[in-house]
Amino acid sequence: MKNGLSRGEMENAIRHAIIKFEQEFMGRGPTDVRAFIIHDIILIRLKGVLTPAERQLAKSDDGIGMVKQMRQNLIAQGREQLCRDILEITGAETTGLFTDIDTSIGERVIVFSCAQDLESHFR
User: Fold this and answer.
1) 53, β-bridge pairs
2) Which terminus of the chain has a lower count of CB atoms within 10 Å, N or C?
3) Is the pLDDT reported for residue 41 higher than 90?
4) Is the pLDDT of residue 106 over 80?
């Protein structure tokens, strides 16, 4: 396994990489981030991700669409860096990156699919 990290250490390293990405690309970090390795999937749940301006926009249907679209565009721009971070931490190539945001509760989910089963390294 990459760097001999335990499951908890790897999930924590992923968590920190996501926080850094959010701070650099979004201008602020989330209030809470959790990362989970589930076989060949990395699931990340972020709470408190909306900026004050995004919270204002999210009060209308058009604004919700704008926030979601902007967030999708930023992830697309940062995709290469995020996938590089995951490879560096886990030793696994990412085969997919999926994300969505719930503007009513200010939570975002990011899912990476990986080319190998990461969980098998911890047994």
Assistant:
1) none
2) C
3) yes
4) yes
